[in-house]
Amino acid sequence: MLEEARQAGIGDLDLLKDYPGLSVFDLEAAWDIVGSHRDEIENAIRLNREA
Q1: Which of 51, 22, 33 lies closest to 12 in space, CA to CA?
Q2: What is the third-level CATH fold of 2-50?
Q3: pLDDT digits (tens, 9 = 90+) for 3-50
């Protein structure tokens, strides 16, 4: 969900406002995971869009 939002142009500050339970550290961890698992995440986003 976070990566899909980022791909749609939603910035970190907006994500933090929309999800007040998240911290900057949470987003940094999320982006690290996206970087490490790009293919798997892209496939999950594609499958979600097709559903």
Answers
A1: 22
A2: Arc Repressor Mutant, subunit A (1.10.10)
A3: 999 999 999 999 999 999 999 999 999 999 999 999 999 999 999 999
**Cα→Cα distances 45→20, 23, 37, Å:** 23, 23, 12
pLDDT tens-digit map of 33-46: 999 999 999 999 99
For residues 21-49, b (16+ Cβ closer than 10 Å) or e, as one string? ebeeeebeebeeebeeeeeebeeeeeeee
Contact 27, 12 (CB under 8 A): yes
Hey, what are 17's tokens? Answer: 């406002």
To which residue do tokens 């996206």 refer? 34
